[in-house]
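Tutorial handout. Part one gives the primary structure; part two gives the three-dimensional structure as tokens.
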Amino acid sequence: MTPKVSVLVPIYNVERYLSACLDSLRAQTFEDFEAILINDGSTDGSRQIIQRYLDMDPRFTVIDKPNSGYGASMNRGLAAARGAYVAILESDDIFEPTALETLHDAAQWEGADAVKANFWLYWSKPQERRVPFDLVDPEHAGETFCPSKDGEWLFYGKPSIWSALYRRSFLVDNGIDFLETPGASYQDTSFTFKVWALADKVTCIPNYVLSYRQDNEASSINSPGKVYCVCDEYAEIVRFLDERPELSERLMAVACRMKFDSYMWNAGRLTPELRKEFLSRARDELTEDLALGRLDLGKLGWYKRTDLMALLSDPERFLSSFDTYGSDDEMTMLRHYWQLGGVLAALQLAARFAARRIVV
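Part two.
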């Protein structure tokens, strides 16, 4: 019998967290699913753990493959999926017991191409704690809409492909899959963009469906081989839009704002040496986007424009101030924009704080 949902679980050397992940899948209140475990050439005890679940639950199957990266694993899973819908569960994360039921009911009720939900930021050490991450805020909870026409805000949120459900025929008919770049960083970026760009109906729900692990040290991207994966993702987005002029007109500027945000966030995760190299490439790409009219400064807001102009005009000065970029401390932010944008930028920020009744 064909299952209603196919759950894809990409696995690579995650023996420490895998049992908790798969236990959360077996515990789902929604039982009509298949679990496709894609073992990407694990060299630790992950394959032995997988076998335990294959032996105890016929809904679990495995694809064993040589190590070739996250994108290749996901595409193998998509090709094998039989369900009407596809869900994704990262092998160090944990589903809420009602996750699949909640997502599937919303998709069925609204006839949606995709359903998007909230999730928890999760730490298991030094003590267990969870913090809510509200991608879907109260203003948009329960809405069903076409993102490319009525939901630009959705493009700017964290991709979080695992807090969602996708109609499989929608993915297949539109040829939506993953870019097969090395490593396991950012491969959700172009996938998510294509989903939002092509979906006629996306339903957003306020439920928290998953605990997204924050303390897996193996998930770091501080590796020279992974630094530029995000650039490959945005090159793919540009290629995708260039082939669809009607979408490009609406979404190219959106994609370029996304690129700026992603590049700055990526730079903040890197070691100082890798950060300098990455920001040099980011500067070249953003300069080209601006020259070609892809980047709409009006979509950035004054503070992001200040950072962009500093990066383009004086990259050394921007790099020297980068440790204060995106700070939550008001005085640190004032110093950052005073240094990069001068008196006017600092006064604008101070006025913004004052309007919010923040003492600076």
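Part three, for discussion. The chain has 14 helices and ten strands. Strands lie at 5-11, 33-40, 60-65, 85-88, 94-95, 114-123, 129-133, 144-145, 164-167, 202-213.
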